[in-house]
Known about the structure:
Number of helices: 4
Helix content: 40-55%
Low-confidence stretches: none
Radius of gyration: 13 Å
Largest sheet: 5 strands, mixed
Shape: globular
Structural class: alpha+beta
Strand order of the largest sheet: 3-4-1-2-5
Amino acid sequence: xxxxxxxxxxxxxxxxxxxxxVAQGSHASLLAYDVARLEHREWASEWGESGCKKVTLKVxxxxxxxxxxxxxxxxxxxxxxxxxAGHTQVEPGTKTAVAIGPAPEKEVDTLTRExxxx
Length: 118
């Protein structure tokens, strides 16, 4: 049986507070789920029915974040990149988070297995 998960990846170099990190990760998670519902309805459904497995990871730069997003899109995985409006802790236009999935766990892991937990 295929297991599904979502990886939420946050920039660790911005010095965002805990609340900001949670908010940015939540934005990414919901946006990527919306993509999955449109492009891979069965993945979104099975992920929801199996408990919505998630992992939260970190990267150290905007470049790394962008590379993960591009790689996920090339593999046709549901993904979302969050660009902040700049109302609180970061400048407008700052890329803060990416979510990949829900998708088959093995496919998500091909992009994220080397990343550290947040």
